[in-house]
Amino acid sequence: MNDLKKEFIFQKVNKLKGVGLQLSKYLKNKKIDQIKDIVLNLPYSETDRSQICKLDKLEIGKIQTVKIKVKKLNFPRIRNLPNRILCEDDTGKIDIVYFNSREGYLKKIFPLNKWIIVSGRVNYFRNKYQITNPDYVTSVENQSYVAKNIPKYNLTKGINEKKYRIICEQAINNLPKIRDWLSDQFIKSNRMIGWNEAISRLHNSDDSKNNQSHSFRRLVFDEICANFITLSKNRKRIKRKKIVKSFKKINSRRIIKNLPFELTNGQKNALEEINNDIKSNERMFRIIQGDVGSGKTIVSLLSIANVIESKYQCALMGPTEILAKQHFTTANKFFKNTDIRIGFLSGKTEFKERKLILDKLENGKIDLLVGTHALFQKNIKFKKLGYVIIDEQHKFGVKQRSDLALKGGDNCDVLLMSATPIPRTMMMSMYGDMDISRIKEKPSLRKKINTLSKPENKIDELWPYLKKQISIANQIFWVCPLIEQSRFLDYSSAKKKFDIINKIFPGNVGLIHGSVEKEQKEEILKRFLEKKISILVSTTVIEVGIDFPNANVIIIENANKFGLSQLHQLRGRVGRGDKQATCILLFKENSLSKNAIKRIKILKQSNDGFFIAEEDLKLRGFGDLTGYQQSGLKNFRFADPLLHKDLFNLAEKFILQVDKDLNEDKYNFLLKLFDKAEIINVKDY
Ligand code: ADP
Ligand code: MG
After folding, report:
1. Considering the entire predicted model, what is its pTM?
2. What is d(CA 639, CA 625) in angstroms, rounded to the nearest whole number?
3. Cβ(176) to ligand 1 under 6 A?
4. How does pLDDT run across 294-326, given as a tens digit for each residue?
5. Does 302 sit in the ligand 1 pocket, CB within 6 Å?
6. N- or C-end of the chain: fewer Cβ atoms within 10 A?
7. Which architecture, in CATH terms, is 50-147?
């Protein structure tokens, strides 16, 4: 195969005839930069221009194609009057009308007394049919180019159908035959079709509108494979050889002995898996998945103690200041009777303090550094970093977590902790590059959270209930939803609620929302933690991971605004101590969609995050996306984990089979096609 030809698909669109600077710019706005982007921009519908319509049969308002004879060209000399070309066929008359068109050009495309083909939207003006600024004007010899079903693409302003068609057809028709990365045998035995054939069909038939057509499924399979291959390569890159860390669990054993509780089996297993990874000669790249409250923190701290015993430093990162602070406090508590030295660093650490910490870090006088993203700034140097733990990592994409993993250096193990249970089908596409430890059960003392729902107009019934809770020293979260992405509205709704509740329970209520300053926020959270106030009104700005063991009631307003997983996460803020916890979902009557009702029902029925994640995915299929926040699902443009479940499974098997050949060029082609090459630094193909 000719190398130049092979490159065609990855060239910039301006390599196509008719694409100049201006058009390139327009296309780029539509994320069409390379020729392959045109290839993957599938038609969403088509325009039927196939019938040549006699003038007495025209329908007003429709796009139609006519064959007409040019009788007269009218170029009025008065400004603002359009140019008008009078035409006819044997059944009637029609005017073709142009605003702002040059005379010379019109004379050329409308030769007097010649038959021509015109296609466009028909309207009626002063007792006469007319087509204004037609989409196509062409000679009769060229009829077949216009009189047919023409695919419709999502276009940006400034590119009309005719123009886009010219470049799209250039791209599709000149597409070199690729060496398919699927073998003929695989294609046959799985009832697939070849790549070139699939692309051609997708642009020239109804296939692109049917997500189960053979050609669409082929593209879906390719997309899933590109995703899996990326993860597999990423895994190989991270899981390199490292120097073995050795320890005898002296500190971790002592900490376990002094714990006020027994570790669950899930915690023990996860810890064992992590310890084995740390001791092995391959770098660890592992994620602990465990529902809110399943006790991931203590597992990570115990493994940290082991790494420190092997004379390496550790870094523990939380997504926010507050959560990182809580980890710092927890670490200090559990490491109290050890000689482990702990430091804290965030973007807000004062200059002097920061300098001191960086100094100690570089001289090996800090064993564990807890903090926020600030831990990974360039000028932060560890003496001997051996282990990085990142909490609540589901906010990172593949590229980000891989960058973080590699930043630690050659001997650094990496552990992620996530409280977002992932449905089985999504597991591989989200975490295929990592080893996975799942903590399924919760500490046995925990009781099921009682979940109730209530219409908002019965809110007054809540006050006696809350009074009683407060009288027995319980604490309450009150969650107001973010009305919009507006700090002001978010503030005003939470503030209103605060005023109401504070009237009923004066001085016993705190308020936190998006615009509360950091110090003030910390102060309020502290007061809540120290039980100086009983009710905390907040928007969703309170991080899910924060641990308030004494809070056992959560009230979620406008519950229908939240997705299933999100509600489950919010609910998980309570029920962390040993008291019975209650979650009350408030909703406006009449505003509940069918799916919102289903969500509430599922929440009442189950406390199992993994089950809820599966149900969430199923519900998503019904198209109710309000409040849905599972970031990984956005990874796919064509594939849908519900509709193409079989292809996800097939791809999983396929990748296992070809895993050792993944460096072959043909797979690089695939990765570049789906913009994955950058993630894993594939050299130019
Ligand atoms: P998450 O997995 O959501 O991060 P945490 O690590 O914050 O959960 O733990 C939640 C709470 O449960 C903490 O107060 C922790 O001390 C407690 N906890 C952890 N493990 C156990 C256990 N095995 N038995 C009882 N309580 C536990
Ligand atoms: Mg946590």
Report:
1. 0.79
2. 17
3. no
4. 899 999 999 999 999 999 999 999 887 878 988
5. no
6. N
7. Beta Barrel (2.40)
